[in-house]
């Protein structure tokens, strides 16, 4: 794995994503949910909402970097609010 710069931050990021995906898998097995109509006016499953949350968070962080630069603590707060909104209303 020497081809990639595995810093502690990079490893933590991918580890958290892996744990969240595993959590979504367990949640889907333990308590299956039917798709629901949300804010976007198309049916979404919890997995869809998770993907939308991740994708939106990536764009939020890129915009934050373009405007404010590092650190990304403010972007993290916005991303968490975005994810909560996606799981609540999307």
Keywords:
90 residues; mainly alpha; two-stranded antiparallel ribbon; 2 strands; 69% helix; flat
Q: For the CA atoms, what is the radius of gyration?
A: 15 Å
Major β-sheet annotation: 2 strands, antiparallel
Q: How much strand content do the residues show?
A: under 5%
Strand-and-helix sequence, N→C? HEEHH
Major β-sheet strand ordering: 1-2
Principal-axis shape:
flat
Percent helix range: 55-70%
| Low-confidence runs | none
Structural class: mainly alpha
Distance between the termini: 38 Å
Number of strands: 2
Counting DSSP H or I runs of 4 or more residues, the number of helices is 3
Q: How confident is the prediction overall: mean pLDDT?
A: 90
